[in-house]
Amino acid sequence: MSRFFLLFSFFAALATAADTIKPGVRSPITFKTSPQVSDNEQLKMRMHAAETPPPYDVSMEKFDIIVPKKYKKGDPHGLFIWISPSNAPSISPEWEAVLADKKLIFVGAHNSGNNREVFARMRMAVDANDNLRELYDIDDQRVYVSGFSGGGRVASMLGVTYADMFTGTIAFMGTNFYTDIVSLDKTEVFQMRYIPHDEIMAHAKNECRYVLVTGEKDFNLKNTSAVFENGFKKEGFKSVELMNIPAQGHQPPKGEWLKKAIEFLDGKK
Fold it and tell me: 32-42 as b/e, with b when 16 or more CB fall inside 10 Å?
């Protein structure tokens, strides 16, 4: 079988997949292949991981996608790649409306919750990013990764280790960092969770934008506040914002806070 035929079949399959997705409606989507950037060697290099990631096949994974109703070819939209703490990539209708208004295509993986090992959760986000660029007109300056709680922790790592693929990160009520972090009251130490590649980390510091979201009643408030001050700020990240929501507990906040976070990533603040 010729290489031309294989490429033709691949792109034809992608086009067919896009045609079955109705804008404005949450739809299932699957992908057949993973890019080289999410293979074992890349993951190990980007995180300085000693262990080899376990077997993984993106064609066995399922995703949900929501394309804004007004999306049209030739009008680039951003990507909002969601990492859930649970097995279903759920967000509220209020959030869906915000993403549509901000011209962001939502995608989230099933079976990517806190019970799944971290390498697979990272690979699914990277794979969705790469594959959707073949299906839709994507604004390369608006490719955002986000998550809540444990999903926020994974998103915070991806936003640094894959800074060449994600231009912005929103970590809701959970964030990790690559150095040990002392709490602001100096009573606790939060251990480092990964070691990024030096060149990619430099790109993250200078070119990417980050929002850490917590709340007055969030049990991760101390952790998130310390990572903001003694992590991102201390390490010299140029564009990072902390949002501490009044009276907010450990739940996804109202849509207005998602909107504010997106506007920071868009450079509107």
Answer: eebbebbeeeb
| pLDDT confidence tier of residue 144, bands split at 50, 70 and 90 | very high
HSE-up (13 A, CA, CB side) for residue 2? 3
Q: What's the pLDDT at 3?
A: 46
Terminal-to-terminal C-alpha distance of the chain: 53
Q: Residue 159 and residue 93: Cα distance in Å, rounded?
A: 25
Residue 148 CA to its chain's centroid (Å): 10
Name the token pair of 265.
Answer: 């990533």
3-state DSSP assignment of residue 47: helix
Query: Looking at residue 55, what is its pLDDT?
Result: 95
Contacts of 6 (CB under 8 A, 6+ apart): none
Q: In the numeric block, which tokens belong to residue 53?
A: 């990631």
User: Bridge-partner residues for 105, per DSSP?
Assistant: 79
Residue 9: C-alpha distances to residues 13, 32, 149, 220 (Å): 6, 12, 39, 47
The whole model's pTM is what?
Answer: 0.93
How far is it, in rounded angstroms, from Cα 162 to Cα 160? 6
Q: What phi, psi does 214 have (nearest 5°)?
A: -145, -170
What are the phi and psi torsion angles at 244 (to 5°)?
Answer: -105, 105
